[in-house]
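User: tokens in, sequence out, please.
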């Protein structure tokens, strides 16, 4: 097998190897399953053998089991054919059984098993929504931290100068589960003497 073909094959195989490794942990909220095959579709692929990277571009869709990643570009850093870092750029969407995450960029640190989403981060599950500018999720511990960025600069109309605005805040909107319909009361029975 040529060196290029071997690299392309190894990049394709390890694209989500780190994330899939975390799937063996109990209570995996993303629903990753390391035994599922990984399918990668993109408009193009560029392997940099000297830089140990592979870059998928153009409507990239990565699927493993029930988890699907969409992005404009996904770059895999894979020294010695083992993925150490994956970077998704542009219109990043992760769909899983536990919900949907949308961001401008995403980075997965394979050895640390940490996923970082940045930019306009929106998490949804059914009607529930959370918004922030950064999300850090540890696949190993199951802990997630969402933060909001620094205060935006506000230009005053009178002087045209910029001043710090209100601090950005994490926002959440949660709908409580609807109680199931109570059982119909049984009709009173008539007692006959």
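Assistant: Sequence out:
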């Amino acid at each position: 097998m040529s060196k290029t073909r071997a690299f392309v094959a190894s990049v394709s195989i390890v694209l989500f190897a780190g994330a899939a490794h975390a799937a063996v942990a109990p209570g995996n909220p993303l629903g990753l399953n390391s035994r599922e095959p990984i399918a990668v579709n993109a408009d193009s692929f560029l392997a940099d053998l000297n830089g140990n990277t592979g870059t998928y571009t153009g409507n990239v869709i990565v699927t493993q089991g029930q988890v699907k990643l969409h992005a404009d570009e996904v770059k895999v850093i894979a020294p010695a054919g083992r993925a150490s870092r994956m970077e998704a750029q542009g219109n990043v969407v992760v769909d899983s059984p536990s919900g949907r995450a949308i961001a401008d960029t995403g980075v997965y640190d394979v050895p640390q098993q940490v996923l970082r989403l940045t930019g306009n981060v929106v998490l949804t599950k059914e009607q529930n929504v959370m918004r922030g500018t950064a999300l850090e999720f540890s696949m190993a511990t199951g802990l997630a931290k969402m933060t909001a960025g620094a205060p935006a600069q506000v230009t005053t109309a009178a002087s045209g100068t910029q001043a710090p605005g209100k601090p950005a805040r994490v926002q959440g909107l949660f709908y409580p589960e609807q109680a199931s319909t109570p059982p119909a009361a049984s009709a009173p029975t008539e007692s006959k003497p």
